[in-house]
Every structure is written in structure tokens, then in C-alpha cells.
Amino acid sequence: MEFLRWNLISSFLLLCFPTLSLTSRLFSPVDNYLIDCGSAAVSTIDNRRFVGDLSGGNELPLSFSGRWFSMRNENPVPGLAPIYHTARIFRSPSKYAFPIRDKGTHMVRLHFNSFNSRGFDLGEAQFHVLVDQFVVLSNFSLVNSENPRIMEYLIRVDAEELVIMLVPTEKSKIAFVNAIEVISAPKDLVPDTAQYVSSKNVVNFDGLSNQALEVVYRLNVGGPKVTPFNDSLWRTWMPDDKFYKPNPQSKRLYFGGRIKYQKGGVSREVGPDNMYNSARLIKSMNASVPRINMTWQFPVTGGYKYLVRLHFCDIASISIGLLYFNVYVNGNLAFEDLDLSGITGLLASPFYADFVVDTDSFGALSVNVGPSNKSIPYVVDGILNGIEIMKLNDSRNSLDGEVCAGFVLKSWPRGNSGFFLTLLAAICIVLSISLVIRRRVLGLGDSFPWSRLPVDISDEHVKISGLPSQSK
Predict the structure, then answer these.
(1) In 211-350, beta strands by DSSP E
(2) By the number of CB atoms within 10 A of the CB, which of 82, 128, 145, 264 ranks highest?
(3) Nearest Cα residue to 107 out of 28, 186, 37, 38
(4) What residue ranges are annotated as transmembrane (predicted)?
(5) Is 406 in contact with 142 (CB distance < 8 Å)?
(6) Residue 162 bridge partners (DSSP)
(7) Quick one: average pLDDT of 258-277?
């Protein structure tokens, strides 16, 4: 019933304020490839045209190579989007090459849905996927998966084309994909600097925009699911209930007013209105400030660094200068005495902060928000609107598995990968050597250059994710 109420409110607001849905369609990416694999038709999903990769013509300028055939699901589940009715099947390492006009970060979404047809069970396929020099999927399979899977990545592209390669494992001999999206991202989506948070200190993490990122979680805190139709980058924001640790002293809040995006600050492409206008919060109801935290816990794959992007928007306070709170990531203090209105200068104006953390072998990640020593009685003492968690590639340029792209291709028994294999293997060797040399020269215990910052972080240290300094 609660989700029904949220959906009714959202629908009502969209009817009352049609500009909200109009805004979500204003972003026009330079590179915008929406491919319906194994199809010759055009499929429309959320007002977006997916062009069949068998249609040919100038509308689809990508190139393709490899041994393949197409398949169609003759008995799709009712209501299943048409892009999941077909698939392109690969019998050898095969690639899609997308011409790139707008160099920089690109969103790559891979759609998978298994079905049986012509004696093939796609649920038994096992394969690897490479995006340029990055291994994004290793020994991937949809065994026992009844629903479509969408894998989303943020990849920086500085070349003339982006290459997606699918490599069957020797065990299964086939790979497949149902649909592909390659979209140039807004320039402010992935900044170059975040804050690395550990038990010892907080330091700069530079070079973030050069990392490959896999979107693991994207949550609308306190609110309902936000669908691609209501997001300017066609993202899905899931409710946070599954990951939120129940706390009777916190509550949800929905805001019916206007989210105030400011020039030079957070844009709608970073976070949509429908995410910022809901939240969970802690509020003091008497003369004492509650000493509790709101807690979210996430299972993740251990051994990787993760980008934790937290979205804030003070939609609860009655005046500026009343809300102060602390933010913890993995139990470590990431931001002390966060004063949102001191950063944005306004209420209901969004702000986000990026933190990079390590994970242990247990594969657990947590976020906590709660009152600080500056919190005030009788007002809001903590708020959070959205959470995004993204995995960073490791030193092998891998987001999955323990080998680099060259070794993935070398594992293919037929040895017909040619120049592409040789090039990727050389890249892996050069990266490994340069990493060792860099660590010896700089004397670092890790592979990234960080400079120290004080633990008591000021607003200036996160201005890359908020507003320019003059608005503080």
C-alpha cells in the first residue's frame, strides 16, 4: 500500500507539473547507440528507439565481426520488453565497434535475457565481455535467472571507437547479448577527484574519471522506484528498503515543492528531481538530540575499491543553518558536521559527495548518517536522498575475475584473435610493469596518487561535487 501511495503521488505531480517529465528528455547525447541485437526491427522502450542490428542502412553506423547467428524467443513472457525477444549468438570471439564522436565518459549498458529456441538454451551460455581494454564480465552466465539482467558501466573513451567484445568460454562455446546501449555521458557526471576514506584518514583520490566503473547499486532513499522514463540519463533508481536497517526513530519524507538546481551545481543529469524529492531523516522531537544513526548495508565483491556517491537535498528544514550531521562510510568518518545550506546557500538545492573505499574479503559495505556535535534539538539532525555504489577496475583493468583482457582472449582455444589479442596482451604487460615502477618510485602502498587532507573536511574539499566556492 505504501508503494502504491508513492506512485499515486508521483503520477499526480507529473500531471500537475508536466515540465518535470519534459526536463528528463532535454539531455541530447552526441553518441547515442541503442541496439536491439539479433533483430531487424525497431523497438520502442520508454520513448527510446532501439534499432535492430540486422536492419543495416545508415541509421546503424557500427561495424561487426565474428561468427554469429540470431535467435528469436517464440514464447516470450507477457509484458516482456521486445528487446528481450531476440538475441545475437556468438560462436567465437566477436566484437561490436561503435564510432565515437564525443570523447570522454560513456555509459555502456548490456542487456541479457535467456530463453530456449532452436535447440539452444541461453541459460547455459558462459562467456566473457570486454569493453575496450577492460574485462567487465568474466565467466558470466544466466543460470537459474528468470528475469532480464542489465549491466551498466561508465567507461572513458579517448579513441575513435569503442569496442565491445564477447568471448565464449571453452566450456559453453557460445555467448549472447539481447541489447546494447552506448551513450556519451554529461561532462559533470564523473569528476576527476573523490575522497578516499579509510580508518586512518581522508585523502584525495585523483584520476577517478580514468577508471572503469560498474554500477552495482542505485537507490532512491525513502522513495519509490524511479524508472528510466523519469530520469534524464534513462537510469533506474530502486527503493532502498532492502538495504536499510530499520530504525523506529527515523522516518521517510516526500517533498512536493520544486528542487532548486543551480548553475554550477548539481545538474539533473547527476540526479533527477524524483530522487531528490524523497528522503529518510532523523529529527529531534524534544530538547535532546537523538544519538542514533541511519544505516544501510550492502553485499559487494571483496578485493575492489568502490565509489560511494551520496546524494543530499535539504527538503525538510524550515530555515537554512539548522541542519548539521555526520556521514560515515564503512564505519569511518567521511564528513563531519555537514552543513548543506552552507554549501548550496538554499533549501531544497541538491548536493552530492563522492567517497572511495576499500572492501575486505568479507565483501561488506555500509553507509551511516546521523547527528553531529553541532546538531540542534527540535530540528532535523540527519538526511539522505540517494545512494550510488560503483565498483572500480583493479590493477589488471578488470571489474570481474582475476585476469586482464589479453589473457581472456588467449584462453580461446582456436587462436584466431589475431592482432587484437597481441595488442591487448601487450597492454596488460605494459600496465603491470608501469604499476610496479610507479609504486617503487613513489613509495606507495597502492596504485593511486593521493595527497593528504585533514580528517575534519571543510566544504572546500568537496566543491567538485557541489557548488562553486562563491556560493558557500
Answers:
(1) 213-220, 238-239, 244-245, 250-254, 278-283, 294-299, 305-312, 325-329, 332-338
(2) 128
(3) 186
(4) 418-437
(5) no
(6) 98
(7) 96
- Torsion, Cα 42 272 369 322, to 10 degrees, reads 180
Written as one letter, the residue type at 247 is N
Q: Which is more confidently placed, 445 or 428?
A: 428
Per-residue pLDDT tens over the stretch 160-207? 999 999 999 988 889 999 999 999 999 999 999 999 999 999 999 999
Taking residues 6-33, report their average pLDDT: 55
Output the pLDDT for position 464: 32
3-state secondary structure of 230: helix
Q: Are 468 and 460 in contact (CB under 8 A)?
A: no
* HSE toward the beta carbon, residue 272, CA cutoff 13 A: 30
Q: Which helix (H) or strand (E) holds 136?
A: strand 134-140
In 3D space, the residue among 221, 348, 225, 334 whose CA is nearest the CA of residue 282 turns out to be 221
Q: Please, are residues 150 and 111 in contact by the beta-carbon 8 Å criterion?
A: yes
DSSP state of 302: T
Q: How many CB atoms lie within 10 A of CB 352?
A: 22
Torsion angle, alpha carbons of 265, 384, 370, 281, to 10: 130
What is the percent of the chain where pLDDT is above 70? 81
Tell me the pLDDT band of 466, cut-offs 50, 70 and 90: very low
The count of other CB atoms within 10 Å of the CB of residue 402 is 11
Q: Which whole number is the average pLDDT over 104-114?
A: 97
Tell me the pairing of strands 48-52 and 32-36. parallel
What SS3 string covers 380-422? EEEEECEEEEEEECCCCCECCCCCCHHHHHHCCCCCCCHHHHH
pLDDT at 454 over 60: no
User: What does the chain come to in residues?
Assistant: 472
Q: Cα separation of 218 and 308, whole Å? A: 10
CATH node for 32-184: 2.60.120.430
SS (H, E, C) 147-183: CCEEEEEEEEECCCEEEEEEEECCCCCCEEECEEEEE
C-alpha cell at 416: 584466431
Q: Does CATH place domain 2-25+188-393+450-471 in 3.40.390.30?
A: no
Report residue 89 as a C-alpha cell: 549468438
Q: Is pLDDT at 345 greater than 50 in this prediction?
A: yes
